[in-house]
């Protein structure tokens, strides 16, 4: 007999002064079982509703953030287009050339990107990756040119201080 049923049986017997095996005890046991099922169903429903509400909140937040980001990007693009006097192709990548046949430390692109952005005090680097030749490629974030990064080679060398750097340059077209 489950613990709650046993307690209900004892309770009914004590209250009515009757033996534990009576129709009243059976009714109490049925009611306790019904209450247990109702509580379980309520918990499940509450959890599902809370989860659904949370998802709705996340979707709404993401939609607002996406709309804001799109509007900001449009504004930045319009401002840049209006202020540029002559068209110029911005450097989108910077290549950190490594010495060949020298052992390199473990590559951690996200940590390297964050370290570069911290040193530059701006989110200029969007991605740090390895090229097919084994070099390090720094991809600039929209709105930032690689020229800025190329003028600060010492900061790149500092972030990749344990790496066998041969040179830092813009890719050749």
Q: In words, what does this structure look like?
A:
There is one protein chain. The protein is of the alpha+beta class and 173 residues long. It has two domains: 3-81; 93-169. Helices cover 57% and strands 13% of the residues. The protein has a four-stranded antiparallel sheet. Helix 1 crosses helix 2. The protein starts with a helix and ends with a strand. 12% of the residues are buried. The model has no long low-confidence stretch (mean pLDDT 75).
Summarize the structure.
The chain has helices spanning 3-16, 23-83, 109-120, 146-150, 153-159, and strands at residues 93-98, 125-130, 136-140, 165-169.
- The average pLDDT value, as a whole number, equals 75
Shape: elongated
How many domain units? 2
Radius of gyration: 33 Å
Instruction: Bin the strand percentage.
Output: 5-15%
Number of helices: 5
